[in-house]
Each structure stands twice: as C-alpha cells, then as structure tokens.
Write a structure and sequence with these properties.
By secondary structure, the chain is α+β, with helices and mostly antiparallel strands. It is built from seven helices and 18 strands. The protein folds into two domains: 2-67, no CATH class; 80-284, Alpha-Beta Complex (Fumarylacetoacetate hydrolase, domain 2), CATH 3.90.850.10.
C-alpha cells in the first residue's frame, strides 16, 4: 500500500496515478491525552488500520496525483537520523571538495557516527525547499528514506527490517560551512520526505534500488542503494544501540556522488525504483 498526506492534512491511499481520500481513518486512532505518547500515531497503528484504509479507498473516486499538494507522509517523528558519506564515490567527492570538507580530515562513518536533523526541518515535496542563506552554498542530497513502525531499542542486525513501516524518497538538504553538520542540515525545509510512504511489504530489497535526481532536467545524482557502504539493516541496528526508535522516526540512509548547489527558481525531480517520483521546487526563504 502507498499512503500519503496531502493538501491541508488529508490522508490518502495512492493507486496508480490517483489519490483516494481515506481521511476518515483518523477517527479510528486511539484517543490520546497530554502528555502525548512519543511518535506518529498513524504510523504506529498502520498495520491494524490498513485493511480499513483499503476499504475506504474503494469507495473514494480519487483525484489525479498531479492535482494534490503532497506533504510529508509522516507528521510527527521524534527523530530524523542521517547516515554520513554512505557511498564511497560521495566520500571521495567530499574529500576532494574544500567547500564540503572545510579542511577537516576525512573520517569513516563509524568514526563520525550517525547524526540528527531537527524535526522542524521536515516538509513534503510540494512545500518546496527555502534557501535561507543565498550567499552560501545549499546542496541537494538524494536518499532512500525509511520510516520506523515500532518502538524498538537494541534490535539485532538480522531482525532490523521487522521494525520498518515503509519507505519514501528523502532529500537531506545542507548549507555548506564550518558549523556542526546537524546545525547546517536542520534549516527549516531542509528535510524533505515523500511523496508517499510505500509499506515495507512492497519493497523486497531496500538495498537494491535505482534512483536519480535531476535539477532543471539535468542529471546530477544517479546510483543504486546497493552501493551503500553500510546497508539498511546495519543502519537501523546501529541507531538502536544509541537511541530508542519510535513509530514515525525517519532514517535518511545517505547520498551518492553528484551533490551540487541549488538556487531559488530551480526544480529538482527525483525518481526512486519501487517508490515513485516527486518534484521539489527551490525558493527563497520568506
């Protein structure tokens, strides 16, 4: 199943090229009161509500995907986790580019560790990336995004995929400079997820997906997740050695070579095998 959030917070099931409104499903979510539980309630209950969402979609005429405004399919993650330089060709690119490495000595992923992006940076593709510092370089980083479906800590490598709710296309945007990575990657709108979430059962092997990013029609990034240095299961199990993951938490699994600057007026187009495609405009910050 593919489900999305769109327009003013509607919930939809995506079939072929149409979005079917299933917003009534929110009435089936457990009632919660302050202090609210950690995580995204819809993602946490997705398995039990899925059949009902499909039935609601059966009764909805649907709208073309071209007519809806896609938001992030996850509304309330507790964490957005990033995996640095997880493709060797990008690691080499970073070592050779002074604007990326800012004079720092190269380190392995294990030496760097995972990093966090502020949840306030999260948007959907239709909202567009807002360049806040036009005098500095803002780069695109196309990535596979995975969404956690169950509260988990200390999970084994072998069982790591059992806690994945689904997958989406992710953009880990970054402003270049000397500050800490998490600071520069947490600018408002610099975490893009969409256009929908594809449930984990529909993707047999997340470590074997082709993907492409173009800017204004020019290919900038193109690779396959098979080229990741650390695979999806290791990223999940490693993250749970340090954090408890909650439903809706997002892992952005790293980017390939070809990262480059974008400016207001540009349009990024991303395609991901088994997930779909999305357009993300670049605009100036308000």
């Amino acid at each position: 199943m593919k489900y999305c959030r769109y327009d003013e917070g509607c919930i939809g099931v995506v079939r072929d090229d149409r979005v079917h409104d299933v917003s009534a499903i929110v009435n089936e979510l457990p009632a919660i009161r302050y202090p609210f539980p950690k995580g995204d309630s819809l993602v946490a209950n997705l398995a039990s509500l899925r059949d009902q969402m499909e039935r609601l979609a059966d009764t909805s005429e649907g709208r073309p995907v071209s007519e809806v405004r896609f938001l992030s399919p996850v509304a309330n993650p507790t964490k957005i986790i990033g995996t640095p330089a997880n493709y060797e060709a990008h690691a080499a690119e970073a070592r050779a580019d002074a604007e990326i490495n800012v004079g720092k000595s190269p380190r392995t992923i294990e030496q760097q560790g995972l990093f966090l992006k502020a949840t306030s940076a999260l948007i959907g593709p239709s909202e567009g990336v807002a360049v806040r510092f036009p005098d500095r370089r803002t780069d695109h980083e196309a990535e596979l995004g995975l969404v956690i479906g169950k509260t988990t800590s200390g999970i084994s490598y072998e069982n790591a995929l059992d806690v994945v709710a689904g997958y989406a296309i992710a953009l880990d945007m970054v402003v270049r400079g000397p500050e800490d990575r998490s600071f520069r990657k947490s600018v408002d709108t610099y975490a893009v997820l969409g256009p929908w979430l594809v449930t984990a059962d529909e993707i047999f092997d997340p470590d074997s997906l082709n993907f492409t990013l173009t800017v204004n029609g020019e290919i900038r990034q193109q690779s396959n997740t098979a080229n990741m240095i650390i695979d999806v299961k290791r990223q999940i199990s490693w993250a749970t050695e340090f954090y408890t993951l909650h439903p809706g938490d997002i892992i952005m699994t790293g980017t390939c070579e070809g990262v480059s600057r974008v400016e207001p007026g540009d349009k990024m187009h991303l395609e991901f095998e088994s997930i779909g495609s999305m357009d993300v405009p670049i605009r100036a910050a308000d």
